[in-house]
Amino acid sequence: MLAHLHIENSRLGSPLSHAHDEHVRAALIRHKFLADRVRITIGWDGDMLDAALATAQFLIAARPPRDNLSARAPGLRWIQTTGAGIDHLLPLDWLPDDIILTNNSGPHGPKCEEFCLMALLALSARLPTLVDQQRARRWSSIFTQPIAGKTCLVIGYGDIGQAAVRAAKRLGLTAIAVSRSGSGAGSSTGPADRLMPTSALDSVLPEADFVVIAAPLTPQTRDLLSRVRLALLRPTAGLVNVARAPLVDYDAMSDMLRGGRLAGAVIDVQDPEPLPADSPLWDVPNLILTPHISCDDPRYVDMLLDAWAANLTRYLAGETLRNVVDRSRGY
Amino acid sequence: MLAHLHIENSRLGSPLSHAHDEHVRAALIRHKFLADRVRITIGWDGDMLDAALATAQFLIAARPPRDNLSARAPGLRWIQTTGAGIDHLLPLDWLPDDIILTNNSGPHGPKCEEFCLMALLALSARLPTLVDQQRARRWSSIFTQPIAGKTCLVIGYGDIGQAAVRAAKRLGLTAIAVSRSGSGAGSSTGPADRLMPTSALDSVLPEADFVVIAAPLTPQTRDLLSRVRLALLRPTAGLVNVARAPLVDYDAMSDMLRGGRLAGAVIDVQDPEPLPADSPLWDVPNLILTPHISCDDPRYVDMLLDAWAANLTRYLAGETLRNVVDRSRGY
Predict the structure, then answer these.
(1) Which of A3, A137, A183, B92 has its CA 20 to 30 A from that of B123?
(2) Between chains, do A274 and B140 touch, taking CB under 8 Å as contact?
(3) B208, B176 Cβ separation under 8 angstroms
């Protein structure tokens, strides 16, 4: 008997992560074993959700249903989220013990590495300031030294953080990574020159020419770059955020950018998104805002289904799945 | 007897290229043989020019004197310009046959490579459009595929063009270089995948995802990217100019950027510079303007004096100098 995979789309979320029939048809062609193993249904904003949950073993969803899940989905064994961050699902007290939760960590790496390359070079060249000058019709040269040899601090050392570190190393920077425990996936420093625990953050912030925020948003990381911590940065430093907005005190950052106590910032994540037209953030000087595009590829759903199919092979073989969320850490 | 090197500064030119006493003192420390070989004078805007020319064998100048030079500078044998481009000195009919002219090609490479890395990534990520959206307080995601595998056309294959090709190759692009003769410095393609003569330009422009202008400005290259040639580009293409403004028809480029017939541009050179506040270029959509900073390092004068000292060693040994301007080609 075929297992049942239900894909639940949310129109509230990014269209990039919406799975349509053509995505599924293409995945069935790329992964021929799928047709022998699963039947797939696609729902939108709950239009068929309870009927689907009644029979589904597998669920792919941006925002999985959380109410009374054991009763509504008695056969459900595995939920795959469409995003890498699961901060919007915390705390995980709604998740029955016998359901595995996996996130979509992985496909964001290559694009994120490129975005970080661009953002680091843009900050080094003072592009946020040059763009402001363009708007003010002011031609005033700012000369900067090559970026090689400077120091980049990357906060968070998962999929995104490692991409940021790779970008820094490709530019000849010294890369210091900071993670919760101060140890990497394989307990080595990976591509980073140094790997430190979050507890050492205050001591390394003053060393940084550039800081890239790449940590998951959890109760522990909210306001991680607080006003007090941001004040530890050099006034010549540049800041990049490709993670989640609440990790950084944007009011403090804005004050520093206005006052020349931070040279520039490239910020890809805002709160809320879409950022409202009346947000004061739009006009902050020395700041480039991008609309949450840093780590996303237009082939997003194809890549998600490829990763899910590979994980299904592991599931069917009784192997450990990739990207299983740790319930205690919350990511 | 010591030879006489006169350095003539022009306050009209970029402060970056102004040689001050401290630059000379530092160069004499770095290159100890200089003190035994040359005495060095520094002038500003002609304040001591004719007295200096009367005895100088060597001249370093942004804008060398061109009137009646044989009579005014009977001992002058070698003029070094402070810039890489010498378009402002053309035609070279003022240059006596027994005076060598060298340009300052070389030190621009590392910075230019970084600028091209940034510009290519920015165009790939549609950053010029995203920056426009920021100014309009509009949050609208634009998702783009990774840059690797796309095609970059680099027009001009000297110091700057080769830096642009290296940048393209570092990003995994296919790099097509175009030079006057279609042959490289060592008659190989260098880092480029293909090297074509300028006569093939019309056939390769439609292949390009990105075009980097890196050619010298001569009577032959003026308006090289004319309205007709620009129309050969794909509407999804992006344009970078790190050479000289008159190589490209900016009116045509602006029309195309406004009309969606060119996706974006990063333009580091304008005409005139500084670009006047009332120029229509400032407001063209999908365009990032930078103030002629792409290839310049704040250590510019130090690097110039280092290169000059190395060339002086060759001169004293009777060897061929580097960066000698070809009088017939004009660069």
Answers:
(1) A137
(2) yes
(3) yes
| A vs B: CB pairs below 8 A | 134
Strand B287-289 relative to strand B264-267, pairing: parallel
Q: Is B106 left (phi over 0), alpha (psi -120 to 50) or beta?
A: left
Question: Rounded to the nearest 10 degrees, how much is the dihedral formed by the CA atoms of B94, B96, B97, B101?
Answer: -80
A186, pLDDT greater than 80: no
| Candidates B138, B273, B300; nearest CB to A139 | B273
Residue A157: partners with Cβ closer than 8 Å, 6 or more residues away:
A165, A177, A178, A179, A184, A185, A190, A192, A195, A214
Q: Residue B131 and residue A131: Cβ atoms within 8 Å? A: yes
Q: Tell me, what amino acid is at A99?
A: I
Integer Cα distance of A142 and A130 in angstroms: 8
Residues of B in contact with A118 (CB under 8 A): 118, 121-122, 125, 127
CATH number of A3-107+298-316: 3.40.50.720
B115 contacts A125? CB cut-off 8 A: yes
The residue type at A314? R
To the nearest whole Å, the CA of A197 is away from the closest chain B CA by: 31
pTM: 0.89
Model pLDDT, residue A46: 96
The model's confidence at residue B187, banded by pLDDT at 50, 70 and 90, is low
Amino acid A14: pLDDT: 83
Q: Which residue of chain B is at minimal alpha-carbon distance from A277?
A: B137
The complex scores an ipTM of: 0.88
Cβ contacts of A271 within 8 Å, gap of 6 or more? A244, A245, A246, A250
pLDDT tens-digit series, residues A80-130: 999 888 999 999 999 999 999 999 988 788 999 999 999 999 999 999 999
Scanning B213-295, the segments in alpha helix (DSSP H) are 227-230, 250-259
Partners of B112 on chain A (C-beta within 8 Å) are none
Alpha helix (H) residue ranges in A14-78 = 21-30, 34-37, 49-53, 69-72
> A298, B122: Cβ pair inside 8 Å?
no
Taking residues B253-270, report their average pLDDT: 98
pLDDT per position as a tens digit, B98-137? 999 999 988 788 999 999 999 999 999 999 999 999 999 9
* Residue A188 DSSP code: S
Dihedral, CA atoms, A62, A66, A69, A73, nearest 10 degrees?
A: -20
Would you say residue A188 has pLDDT above 90? no
Alpha-carbon distance A211 to nearest alpha carbon in chain B (angstroms)? 18
| Mean pLDDT value across chain A | 95
Per-residue pLDDT averaged across A154-175, rounded? 96
CATH, range B109-289: 3.40.50.720
Å from B3 to nearest chain A CA?
33
* Average pLDDT score over residue span B237-252: 98
Closest CA to A34 of A73, A5, A77, A56: A5
Q: Which residue has the tokens 């509009």?
A: B138
Given a cut of 90, whether residue A196 has pLDDT beyond it is yes
Q: What is the pLDDT of residues A204-216, one digit of tens each?
A: 999 999 999 999 9
Tokens coding B175: 């790099």
Structure tokens at A18: 């919406």
Where are the domains positioned within chain B?
3-107+298-316, 109-289
Nearest-by-CA chain A residue for B141: A291
Q: Measured between beta carbons, which residues in chain B are less than 8 angstroms from residue A279?
A: 137
Is the fold of A3-107+298-316 the same as that of A109-289? Answer: yes
pLDDT tens, B216-238? 999 999 999 999 999 999 999 99
